Amino acid sequence: xxxxxxIEISASSSxxxxxxxxxxxxxxxxxxxxxxxxxxxxxxxxxxxxxxxQYRVIMKVTFVLK
Length: 66
Description:
The chain has one helix spanning 17-31; strands at 3-13, 35-48, 51-65. It is α+β, with helices and mostly antiparallel strands.
């Protein structure tokens, strides 16, 4: 039997939501093992002078414990 854990992470990018997701997974992978999936809970942008400056995502990341 496997036991999985879900954590919430926040990630950002100045380019796109997709890049923000990739940044989040890459950073999580540096400290977690056995990541099996992620679910994007929310997306947000920050705007300055009428232009999008940052794309942000909140993700739930699932990984299997050893």
